[in-house]
């Protein structure tokens, strides 16, 4: 039974990486239910995914702030 679960497509590392790229930290339940990972590996992957998610969120917020500032500067210029 456990081997059948390991062979599922959604437990393969490639699927987990693609899932992280598409849905971010919402992939964590699949990592924690994956029978192929030890608890230590699950914990390390969780920390990495949460850190990357925080970093990407911070970068996206900074980019959005820069973009809005640029638009405000463009709006203030008159010809």
What can you tell me about this protein's structure?
The chain is mostly helical and 79 residues long. The chain has one domain. 75% of the residues lie in helices and 0% in strands. It has helices spanning 2-6, 13-23, 28-32, 39-76. The N and C termini lie far apart (72 Å).
Which helices and strands, and how do they pair?
Layout: H1 2-6, H2 13-23, H3 28-32, H4 39-76
Question: How many domains make up the coordinates?
Answer: 1
Helix count, DSSP H or I runs of 4 or more residues? 4
Assembly state here? single chain
Radius of gyration equals 20 Å
Give the amount of beta strand, in percent.
Answer: under 5%
Please sum up the structure shown:
The chain has 79 residues and is mainly α. It has helices spanning 2-6, 13-23, 28-32, 39-76.
Descriptive key words:
mainly alpha; elongated; 79 residues; 75% helix
């Amino acid at each position: 039974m456990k081997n059948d679960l390991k062979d599922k497509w959604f437990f393969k590392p490639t699927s987990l990486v693609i899932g992280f790229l598409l849905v971010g930290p919402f992939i964590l339940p699949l990592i924690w239910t994956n029978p192929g990972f030890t608890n230590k590996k699950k914990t390390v992957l969780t920390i990495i995914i949460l850190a990357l998610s925080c970093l990407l969120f911070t970068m996206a917020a900074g980019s959005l702030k820069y973009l809005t500032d640029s638009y405000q500067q463009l709006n203030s210029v008159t010809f």
